Amino acid sequence: MQVPSPRFHWIAALLLAFAAAPSAAQEIQGQGGRGPAMIIKAPDVSQQMLDNADKQSVNWLHTNGGYSQHRYYPGSQINTTNVKRLRPVYLFQTEVKESMETAPIVVDGIMYMTTAFNHVYALDATTGQEFWHYKHNMGPITTFCCGPNNRGVAIEGGRLYMGTLDAKLVALDAKTGQKLWETQIADPEKGYSETMAPTVVGGKVLIGTNGGEYGIRGFVKAFDSRDGKALWTFYTIPDKGHEGVWAENDATGRNMKRDIPAEKDALAKNSDFYQTLGGGVWMNPAVDLASRTIFFVVGNPSPDLYGAVRPGDNLYTDSMVAVDLDTGQYKWHSQYIAHDVWDLDAVSPPILVDAKDASGKMVPAVIHGGKTGHVYVHDRATGKLIRYSEAMIPQENMWVLPTATGARMLPGANGGVEWSPMAFSPKTRMAYALNLHQPMTYHVEAGQYPGGKLWLGGAFKVIEGEKQWGRLAAVNVDTGKLAWKFDTAQPLIGGALATGGDLVFYGEGNGLFRALDARNGKLLWEFNCGAGANAMPVSYSVKGKQYVAMGCGGNTQLDFKRGNTLAVFALPD
Amino acid sequence: MTARLLFLLALLATVPAAAQDQEAVRAKAQVCAACHGPDGNAVSPEYPNLAGQTWRYLYVQLKDFNEGRRSNPLMSPMAANLSREDMMALANFYAAQPLKPSAFKVDETKAKAGKAKADETLCTMCHLGGFMGQNEIPRVAGQNYEYIVLQLKAFKARTRTNDAGTMTSVAQTLNDTDIENLGNYLTGLRP
């Protein structure tokens, strides 16, 4: 509990005494004095609607567009020929001026968006008029490394689901914003927190966890969407066998300079560190409905830079993992970097596509944009790596080991592709990846588990005087070649959106929200929204009119200018 | 306590407990006052100001003293017998006190060099812009110069290791001049 200062304690006491209304009432704010603005007809999103979300162009029902996570909007009302006339329709200002990473969900003309610190707003998606505003009653302890972020809600039936910074899962009534239930996912004092949007499928709410910088044991959990009851847990760190195969090379065949005999000695002395080995899962899984399999990527081991206390491959960190949707049973994994000491975790959400295999045959595949700067293409059935793309950004000195005084290696610890979800267009067969170029030195320092505090085991430093920049890369998934690249003044973080109008939308830390030609990377349109455009853009249509929405609230991790605005655009009537 | 307030307290059932808690915290904080001041503004610059600090930092430091991850001849015995609730209450109490400006005279040239070093070292990735801290990462804006210098040197010498090496690692890249400059810069970020 927050204890007020003594000068104010009697005021606080009065407030406590008179605010006797149920706590739920305090969490919701309506339109206060501007007449009733209510959701008349509650949304009712069926499983069939969720299954087919990426085949229609009215609603935006999943954070990443559909279970395949293409972030592709099939509509083409806004297209390469008319995008230059795109204009703001409204600017919705939230109460929270902090890092904004949300992807709004839109159903039947109602938009649900979140902000930092777990506020949720329900809006008229065509006007920005507010229906309700939910503020999560945050517990006293929250532990998160990289900003008080939230990436959005999931919807099923008439309910919304959100993970919170104090490691809870809450369900809200989509019509009223009233809380229906909440459940504790894990202990925030040990470093667990939630920033990802959940994924809902077939009555299950799927959610992972943050905490790879705190010595947690990562997981993906499934909860019953009706009551929040836990259904299954898949731990990303197995209690036995996390040492793996003692891989000498990374997934691209480069030697990682491991001292494997020394690691084996260390493991013989202590193999009991699986409880603090990290492996957060902090972006959405892709769901293959046909095989009832989910695919997610697992973050870095803990501590980030100091590997001596965690010998072995540290499975399943820095890996793509497939598990059974109904039971959480392991199916396969494919590790990108064994025994990572660079914080190059796998985080950008996987995308299900069909891609050509080595023999040129189209097969079901799953792809991931890595912090390493490669797009990896796996066989969906086995996990086998079919190919990896050419490097999207400069690489240098891979894999030099961190030292006490600092070793230079590119990419820096943020990537490559950070959490930023890629978009995939079935028309161009290209994946669109937001990359960072941040030269860094990696520093190692011995440090024992610090009891739920930040546990890097060293530090990252940017190199004074070296330019940082960003690059949107279009990667052909069938060849691994870069089709085109578009360089930006600042490192890129946020989501990409591809559309049937052959456009790619993305934002920059300087506030520019931009549309490129998906076929060749030509800049066609831009709008400066005044604060970092670092959220995940979405598109939808209401009464036949297409809209594009982008959160402009900046970013904590890269210290881009903060704001509190959701900007929504359409063509003039 | 005024008669009117007493009347209100009598009237409202939830209040006495809260007020008693507050009094209990103040009583517990009395032993801290000898060094940290009655309101968390330290009596001498080699001790840290606790006023305005993030409550989580204060809580985890007490916990680390209590559980032996951080040690100090003065603080370790003080924290040895505190319960989790005591530590949380004390941390909240000091976090809610206003931080007063330091009497230290900042050398502007050194402060400017300190800012450049801080930018290069990515300090604000954890301490946030303005060095106001977050969660378990401390606010260092407006902290006492002597205390900042002592801690940076302690991290560098590995006599303070309870942050699991992040600050040790950072401090290895700082020389004595850098540390002086950073002290000037951070102390000068006045409340």
Automatic annotation (TrEMBL), chain A:
Signal in keyword set: yes
GO molecular function, one term: oxidoreductase activity
Domain Pyrrolo-quinoline quinone repeat span(s) in chain numbering: 60-397, 469-548
Keyword Oxidoreductase: yes
Domain of life: Bacteria
Keywords in alphabetical order: Oxidoreductase, Signal
Family: Belongs to the bacterial PQQ dehydrogenase family.
Cofactor: pyrroloquinoline quinone
Protein name in the entry: PQQ-binding-like beta-propeller repeat protein
Signal peptide per UniProt: 1-25
Organism listed in the record: Ramlibacter agri
UniProtKB/TrEMBL annotation, chain B:
SUPFAM superfamilies the UniProt entry points to: Cytochrome c
Record-level GO cellular component terms: periplasmic space
Superkingdom of this protein's organism: Bacteria
Subcellular location: Periplasm
Domain Cytochrome c: 17-190
A GO molecular-function descriptor: electron transfer activity
Alphabetized Pfam families for the sequence: Cytochrome_CBB3
Record-given protein name: Cytochrome c4
Organism for this UniProt entry: Ramlibacter agri
Higher taxonomy: Bacteria, Pseudomonadati, Pseudomonadota, Betaproteobacteria, Burkholderiales
